[in-house]
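[User] Once you have settled down, look closely at the record that follows, and write a paragraph about the fold.
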Amino acid sequence: MDQLAHNRFLHEQYKAILRSEMSKPLVSDPDLARQVDKMFRPNAVVGNGSTAAAARWEILTNGKVGGRGHLQKAQDNINFLRKWMRANPDEKLPDYKVATDLLRDLENALEGKPRL
């Protein structure tokens, strides 16, 4: 049983790494798409260009990315995603999965969890 728990732990770590490295996802819901556009910067210099990557860097360095802070932006995105998921509770939809992954990545970033 301990081996199963260990394997599950490793699997969750692996998923966290994939979330933190994901490129800008495509979604079909217009509201979610607008928010995703705000969450990813093309040609970014930090990480994958996501708000989560910028927040991770700011927590790690106590600095700012591009002269701006991203911690509040990350929290605002978390609030949007939670609200969107409550309004769109069908967990089978691809957009819901994307929202879940983005939410977990932002939460991990604000908790100071580095990319594993």
Notes: The two ends are 24 Å apart (CA to CA). The mean pLDDT is 86.
